[in-house]
Write a structure and sequence with these properties.
alpha+beta; Rossmann fold; 3 domains; eight-stranded mixed beta sheet; three-stranded antiparallel beta sheet; 20 strands; about 35% helix
Length: about 425
């Protein structure tokens, strides 16, 4: 680190984290070897000029004491004017620690929940030491693979913010799918599932920044399986302090992208006409709008795609039905019109009885001679005439419902006789 950064550590509200405690020796060593200059705040947060001496203030789990309303007001003004604040709680939140941190944190858009997070699948030795691997993109989560949060309460991002234009709250560490918590509901401690809830929030509040999480044991040197040196815990703390003190910023990174040719020409045109600085600025503004309105945009895209898909399915069904109808007509045209004989109908009925196991009664008299009339002449004939003709001549007597020429001649001769 090329310059000293002054961090103010609160000593006026019974905070658990102190530089003198051997329980936090590794964290203390990290502060000094990283070049941070540390100051103790022992007279409370009663003077804004005094607070502004510090680039970042750490408020680490007050116990059995409350912040005064004037202190909350001063800390809010300190952050709003460009100061930075790290606020930590622990198991049970304000209820478990007998304090009122939420009176301060609600100003910044979040609060600590009176609970203790557990994980039934991914944990270190005890379920109250869950492994966290779900990180949202942020400078604080860079290089993180896996961390352990021991005896930690969860956080909740408030739905309503007083000034959304100047306040941005991100939950960037998220509990796993198998998480559950012990929650104090005002009367008793209950257990219930608590998957995918925020464990750490990063806030941009006007000109300042705030980070809040409910895990004081992450600073501990007492146990390597869950403390400061466990997994990537020390990287997380280093990233948090670097972001708050301004030594780690979200700087631009060069990215190579392939633009659609039409979009490229449109971008060039807009840059010239509207006098943008360059294509990067236009893309960044576009992506920022997309990020801020992501859910609404995605829902609209899904809606449009669904409508197109339904129209496509309807068109395809109509086309298939039309093709099917044409095919059926072509098939029907190729089927010759034949006269069923008595033997054929009897065979069909017999086969149906064998398949269905039912008995079918004849509704017509197949032995009764039916007189047929040719549609193209006045000649009349019977099925017996057809059988007799086709026995003698190797030709069809009837074709497509009409008597053939040969059959007509044969009938005329027969009738003359």
């Amino acid at each position: 680190m090329t310059r000293e950064v002054i961090i103010g550590l609160d000593y006026s509200h019974g905070n658990i984290l102190t530089l003198e405690s051997s329980s936090f020796a590794d964290f203390t060593q990290f502060l000094f070897t990283s070049g941070y200059k540390i100051g103790k705040i022992e007279s409370g947060f009663n003077s804004i000029p005094e607070l502004r001496k510090y680039r970042t203030i750490i408020l680490s789990t007050p116990k059995n004491t409350n912040l005064e309303p004037t202190e909350i007001e001063n800390l809010t003004k300190y952050v709003k004017g460009g100061g930075n604040l790290l606020i930590t709680s622990s198991s049970g939140g304000d209820y478990g620690n007998n304090t009122n941190l939420n009176d301060l944190t609600r100003t910044f858009g979040f609060e600590f929940i009176p609970d203790e997070i557990n994980d039934s699948v991914n944990f270190v030795h005890l379920q109250k030491r869950p492994l966290i691997t779900n990180f949202k993109p942020h400078v604080i989560t860079e290089q993180l693979q896996k961390i352990v949060f021991s005896s930690s309460c969860t956080t909740q991002v408030l739905e309503f913010l007083e000034d959304e234009k100047n306040v941005k709250v991100d939950g960037i560490l998220i509990s796993g799918l198998n998480s559950w918590h012990k929650l104090y509901n005002g009367e008793d401690w209950i257990e219930e599932d608590s998957p995918k809830v925020p464990l750490l929030v990063a806030i941009e509040y006007y000109a300042g920044k705030v980070v809040g999480f409910g895990n004081i044991s992450i600073f501990s040197s007492l146990a390597r399986e869950y403390g400061f040196n466990a997994l990537d815990n020390n990287i997380l703390i280093a990233n948090i302090l670097s972001w708050l003190t301004g030594t780690l910023e979200s700087e631009g990174k060069p990215v190579t992208i392939e633009l659609n040719l039409d979009l490229f020409y449109w971008v060039e045109k807009i840059i010239k006409e509207e006098k943008w600085e360059g294509i990067s600025d236009l893309i960044n503004v576009s992506l920022k709008y997309f990020k801020d309105n992501y859910l609404e945009i995605i829902e609209e895209i899904k809606k449009i795609r669904k409508e197109k898909l339904e129209k496509g399915k309807a068109y395809e069904k109509a086309r298939v039905d039309a093709d099917k109808e044409i095919s059926e007509e072509k098939i029907l045209e190729k089927i010759p019109i034949i006269e069923r004989k008595k033997e054929d109908l009897v065979d069909i009925i017999t086969a149906l009885e064998e398949v269905s196991g039912e008995h079918f009664e004849m509704s017509i008299d197949l032995d009764k001679e039916e007189e047929l009339i040719d549609a193209t002449s006045s000649l009349s004939y019977t099925n017996e005439d057809i059988i007799e003709f086709e026995k003698v001549f190797p030709k069809k007597a009837v074709w497509h419902g009409n008597a053939t020429v040969a059959f007509k001649e044969w009938l005329e001769k027969k009738q003359e006789k």
